[in-house]
């Protein structure tokens, strides 16, 4: 008893307790944190080595205390590879406003005792191995603003209890195994800015009440199995910046109301069963940077003003039934990096403007009906690494010269009608590993390998089914 009394006295001295405050709560917090440590079974980075019973817990790793009251206000142990469970004694940290254990390997159930932390504003347990259902008692956390339980192993119905947290700004339940459906109550928050329920096992229709979340800036609902389409009300979320609803069985058409989303920067509706035309209004979105509509059943033409805003960086319209010509201004702001339109019914020439698009990193436009000559400077773009134009109707010749500081790694222009000579500058491209020009009309190959040759050998070189004659044994092959 005497030793315990002396330890308590020492602790109070270390904590510099204000004389008007009871040390009882400080001692209780100290013991609670030691209980937290004891529930950790593996600490490979020795992150808790400072958690010593004889020192002030306000000096421990991951602990923040109130400057005068010395009560614990934040506990953040993030990305430390911790294993074990969460101690229910966390409930004794009654001044706690932030609890973050993200990016660890913690498991077990989330303690219901956390519901007593009435001051809690941030609860982040993402990227762990927590399982079981969501504790309904956590609905008592009325001051919570951030709740992130993403990428765990939680099950049960999508928790309705979260809708009873009126101050939520950020809710992330993605990457679990929640089932059921998104209920109408998910549209009642007044302040919510971020909502992620993607990568679960949700079904049913998307409720139109989601359109009531007028402050929403980010919405992620993909990788589920819904019924029906996107409610018209969602297209009225004027503050929306990022919207992802890919791979979730959505159908119907995209209505012209999408033009209301003047703040939208990224839209991903890929891997669904949407039909109809891509609304022309998409080409007028002033902030659009990323558009992913691949693997649907879209028909009609690509909006011809797409990219005219000067901000487009990533465009994927592949695997649809689109027809018509490519928009002329996709790289108007010289920011376009990835352009994917393969497996459609597109025709006409490749726009000359793409030959001046120095931001381009990758082009995949194979399996269409594109015709005409390639832009003369396309293959010499400084950042271009991968080009796939196979199975089109391209004609013309390769330019007699090209920049040799190209970053090109892979080039596939097979199954076209390119004719003339394969020039020697191909052998001076230092990074080119895959060259497939098969099934064209090439007649000669310049095999002038001189001291300027930078090519150390192709992994794949396919010139099959051309009109070539003579020996090609001097070509640089990596075998």
UniProtKB/TrEMBL annotation:
It comes from the Eukaryota. It is found in: Membrane. InterPro entries: DNA_repair-toleration, Leu-rich_rpt, Leu-rich_rpt_typical-subtyp, LRR_dom_sf, LRR_N_plant-typ, LRR_R13L4/SHOC2-like. Its main location: membrane. Residues 1-22 form the signal peptide. It is a single-pass membrane protein. Pfam families: LRR_1, LRR_14, LRR_8, LRRNT_2. Keywords: Leucine-rich repeat, Membrane, Repeat, Signal, Transmembrane, Transmembrane helix. The keyword Repeat applies. The keyword Transmembrane helix applies. One of its GO terms (cellular component) is membrane. Gene3D superfamilies: Ribonuclease Inhibitor. Residues 88-222 form the Disease resistance R13L4/SHOC-2-like LRR domain. Transmembrane segments: none annotated. Residues 31-65 form the Leucine-rich repeat-containing N-terminal plant-type domain. This is Leucine-rich repeat-containing N-terminal plant-type domain-containing protein. The lineage of its organism: Eukaryota, Viridiplantae, Streptophyta, Embryophyta, Tracheophyta.
């Amino acid at each position: 008893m005497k030793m315990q009394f002396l330890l308590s006295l020492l602790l109070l001295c270390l904590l510099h307790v204000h004389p008007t405050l009871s040390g009882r709560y400080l001692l209780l917090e100290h013991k609670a944190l030691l209980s937290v440590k004891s529930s950790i079974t593996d600490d490979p980075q020795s992150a808790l080595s400072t958690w010593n019973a004889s020192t002030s817990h306000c000096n421990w790793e991951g602990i923040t205390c109130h400057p005068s009251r010395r009560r614990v206000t934040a506990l953040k142990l993030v990305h430390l590879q911790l294993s074990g469970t969460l101690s229910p004694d966390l409930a004794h940290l009654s001044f706690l406003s932030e609890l973050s254990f993200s990016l660890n390997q913690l498991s077990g159930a989330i303690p219901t005792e956390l519901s007593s932390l009435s001051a809690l504003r941030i609860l982040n347990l993402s990227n762990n191995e927590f399982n079981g259902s969501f504790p309904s008692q956590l609905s008592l956390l009325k001051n919570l603003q951030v709740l992130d339980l993403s990428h765990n192993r939680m099950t049960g119905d999508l928790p309705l209890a979260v809708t009873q947290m009126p101050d939520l700004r950020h809710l992330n339940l993605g990457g679990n195994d929640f089932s059921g459906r998104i209920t109408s109550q998910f549209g009642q928050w007044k302040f919510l800015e971020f909502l992620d329920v993607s990568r679960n096992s949700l079904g049913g229709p998307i409720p139109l009440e989601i359109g009531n979340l007028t402050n929403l800036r980010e919405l992620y609902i993909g990788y589920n199995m819904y019924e029906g389409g996107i409610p018209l009300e969602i297209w009225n979320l004027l503050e929306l910046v990022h919207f992802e609803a890919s791979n979730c069985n959505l159908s119907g058409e995209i209505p012209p109301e999408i033009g209301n989303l003047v703040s939208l920067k990224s839209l991903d509706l890929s891997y669904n069963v949407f039909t109809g035309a891509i609304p022309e209004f998409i080409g007028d979105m002033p902030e659009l940077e990323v558009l992913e509509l691949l693997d649907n059943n879209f028909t009609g033409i690509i909006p011809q003003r797409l990219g005219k805003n000067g901000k487009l960086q990533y465009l994927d319209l592949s695997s649809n039934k689109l027809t018509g010509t490519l928009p002329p201004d996709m790289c108007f702001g010289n920011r376009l990096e990835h352009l994917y339109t393969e497996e459609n019914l597109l025709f006409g020439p490749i726009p000359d403007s793409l030959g001046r698009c120095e931001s381009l990193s990758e082009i995949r436009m194979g399996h269409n009906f594109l015709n005409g000559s390639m832009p003369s400077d396309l293959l010499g773009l400084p950042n271009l690494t991968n080009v796939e134009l196979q199975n089109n109707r391209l004609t013309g010749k390769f330019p007699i010269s090209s920049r040799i500081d190209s970053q090109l790694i892979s080039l596939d222009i097979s199954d076209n009608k390119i004719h003339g000579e394969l020039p020697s500058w191909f052998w001076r491209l230092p990074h080119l590993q895959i060259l497939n020009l098969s099934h064209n009309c090439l007649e000669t190959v310049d095999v002038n390998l001189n001291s300027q040759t930078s090519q150390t050998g192709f992994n794949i070189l396919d010139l099959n089914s051309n009109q070539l004659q003579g020996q090609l044994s001097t070509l640089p092959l990596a075998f």
